Amino acid sequence: MSTAAERKFINLRKRLDQLGYRQPLGVESLPLVEKLFSDLVHTTESLRSTKLSAGKTEKECSNFDAILEPYKAENAKLTRENNELHLEILKLKEQSDRHVKDLKATLRKVEHETADLKFLNNQYIHKIRSLERDNKAKTEKIQQLQEKNLQAVVQTPGGRKRNIPFRRQLMQIDQPVPPSGVSAYPIPQPDDPYVADLLQVADNRIHELQLEVAELQEKLEISERGVKNYSKQVELRDREIERLVLALDGGRSHDVISLESRSKSNEKLIAHLNLQVEYLQQTNRELENRIQDLLDTKQNVTSEVVHLSNKNEELCQELSEIDHLAQQLERHKEIVLETADKEIGEAKKEIKRKHSEIQDLEETIARLKSELCSCRREKERLADELFGKADEKQNFELLLNQLEQEKQRLSEKVENFEIIERELVLEVERMRLEYGIAFGDKSPSRLDAFVKTLEEDRDYYKRELEYLQKMIKRRASPCRRSPEKSEDMRLITRERDELQSMLDRFEKHMIEIQSNVKLLTAERDKLNVLYEQSQDELNRLRREAKQTLVSQSHVEEERDIALADFRRMMADKESLREKLKVQQEAAAFEKSKMEHDITELENTISGFETQQFELKSTISVLKERINSLEDELKIKSNKLAQTSDDSSQFKAELCSLQVLNEQLQQSLEDLQHQSSLKKDELQLAQEEIAKLEEKIDRLNHKSSSQDETVNVLRSTISVLDKEKDSLQETVDEKTERIACLDDNLANKEKTIANLRLTLSELESSVDQLKEALSNRDREIASLRRQLDASQVELAETGRVKEMALKENRRLQDDLAIMARENQAVTTELEEAVREKEEMKTRVHNYITEVSRFESLMASKHINAHQAYESQLSSITKNMSRLEENLKYEQEEKSSVLADLASMRELCMKLESSKELFSRQLTSKNMDYERVLAELEDIKSEAELLKKQLSSERLTIQNLETLLATSRDKEFQNHLSSHEKDSEIQLLKDKLTLAESKLTSHNREVSILRSKVAQLQTDYDVLKRQLTTERFERERAIQEMRRHGLSTSSVRTSSPLSSTMRSPSHSPERAIVRTTDRATAEK
């Protein structure tokens, strides 16, 4: 073999030995081995170049991601703006629909008003025609009565007048009838003939009494003038007598004077008697005239008596009717009182029940407030802990910065080590070539032990990974179980305990992080010690480089150990950063969750307060209604007493009129007797002078009595005038009130129609909400199935994780969009609640107005008994209808509030229901058109109902029985709806609990996934370290066998391996301990 071949063989053998290939090499296989060795060198260089190119491509990919991030942000911004524009379009559509709805409502209102005006016009035309017919019939009746009551009077040639009762009276009209001084009488209502008759009778009576008073005043003035004339004539006669006496006094004889005086006295006496005769004749004529006047007045009085007797009979009939009506009213009052007592008892029972419910609600509110205070205190404590965690985070960041500085320093040291290593390798090669020292082999027992420890660590980590997977599967299973207890307080306490456990878990994590930091500091200190030792050994190796080549292997081992420690520290630093990020995210999530829980509790408390306020308002309304019913009973009793007093006054007036009639008849008989005596005793004038004087005194006494009667009649006339004015005022008030009541009834009917429209709309919205609830249930079932699928997919690779992260980002964007849509929906719901409260206030106002109308109608019924029953029945029917509408509105309000709470809870969990809302919008538009069609049908039905209102008055009693049964049914329906609401609340609470558990489990799964990924990275690092250490250990052993060096360096490296192995257990074992503690606490 030539020297060139030997040189090639020796070089190839040395290089193979350096690489660890100790197998024997033949000369004939030298070219083949040389070729293979060159191929190996080429592949290693190509591998190195591919690694460099891969690093470059990774850097470029990272640069591409940084470039693509602003485009992604811009795309998200554009999608957000698109969603906002879509929401604005939807709002504009809703506003336009609302405006169209308002315009249609105003159009309907105007149509209703025109229909009401037409109906009122027809009613007024009917009333005018009926009044014309009544007026015509009354004029004919008056003419017939005048023909019947007048008697014929015949005057004889002697000046006497005779009454012929059987001769028909013929009337000759000399002049037209003078116009009456009374203004137009009030027009009576056709539905109330009794009121019209009373007013007409009173007006006729007042008119007749006024005429009689005028006649009597004229007669009184004539008599006063006659008395004054007679007194003047007596004074003139006395003066003439005195003058004649003075003229006749002179110087005549006593006899002549006595005769003359006697003759004068006789003449005087004759003149006086003549005067008296003339006076008596004049008085006789006056008395005859007075008798004639009295006869005329007697005839008038008889006609009045006949008329009054007829009126008396009519009044008796009306009094009997009034008594009958009063009895009916008393019976009706007793029935109303019984029903009112029953309703008051029921109302008291309901008030007691409401009081008990209010007390329970107040207790629950106080309990919730106390728990809210405790939650706030816990919130403050958690905020303080978060501040503490922020401080610890800052400390960790400082530690990380220090570690990065240490990393830079160690990297510099490693570069120095590499430079020293190159120098040492060159020196070792030089020494090998110069000296060719061979060393003996030693046993690799310590290396085997080190390999075994690494395998044990690998098995330990595998076992821990399997244990964690089992624990995750066990933890995922309880989320399928639905909680049995659904009470609010238990949920709140459970959430509080969960939050407390989460806080404890965070504290434990922080303690573990602190321990990890301490371990890292300890490892840093150990690395510093090792670095100092390595520096000392390098100095020693430099001194001993010429004696030994063992230092080369020792330096290489220490370099590898330092690199491994450096890599492990970097991995630990990255894992700590990931842990900090995870804990910060978990703390932020828990904080948001607690704030959400606090807002939910505040919303529930505000809901309870609004319910309490509503209950108080209903109690006050019931109290006002009870007071109004009591006031109505008092008013009715007072009015019944007034009617009885009025009937007694009417009876007393009738008795007084009968007494006056009897007195007038007696006076007429006396006057006839006196006239016959005067005709027989006209020749005995002297004897009758005393009688006539007595008669004059009697007549004076009678005139005084007549004056007294005139005064009495004047007082009665004034009283009647006052009564007439009061009656006129009451009639005017009644007409005004009737007009107001008609307007109010029309307004009430319109409001009832509007309420029915709103009720139909609310029913459609409730159906839509039920459909949405069923869709949410289906989505919940699908979410549960997805949860099961996610539990199966927990063992998938990092590719699924990246896809899940992308999906999570997309879902977060969708959640932001849905949150905005949820806010819009919540605003709409708040507007609906505000409209509902306005409708409630309107209904309360309508109830108060109806109570006021009842009092007004009651006052009208006292004055008009015949129309009382019909109007009372109509008002009671309207009241019952309004009460039913009020109860229905309250039930609808409670159901809508429950649905509102359910929607608020469901809207927070909506994730991808945008298309569903659009479909609901289209269905709502269809329902809106359907409701408009139904509204037109209801309008036609309302017009038919107005026509059928007269026939429905007969069916009031049946309706009352039906009303009682319907109230019972409504109460049962209310109970069933309350039970359903409680069941819905249970299901909602279960759903919220399941979702909270789902979120907690997802969060724990993400944490565990990060931990598993971290453990996987640690496992890969350890595996790489193990393989490198095995390779380097084998190479070191072969070199030691070849060179015969001692294993002192191995002994010195053993504590390093132990230090490397001991901290590797700590973080993962700490994590396992924390997971074990969490499972034990749960």
TrEMBL record:
It is found in: Cytoplasm, Cytoskeleton, Microtubule organizing center, Centrosome, Centriole. InterPro entries: Centriole_BasalBody_StrucProt (IPR051877). SUPFAM superfamilies: Tropomyosin. It comes from the Eukaryota. Transmembrane segments: none annotated. Its main location: cytoplasm. The keyword Cytoplasm applies. Residues 1046-1065 have a biased composition (Low complexity). This is Uncharacterized protein. It comes from Gopherus agassizii.
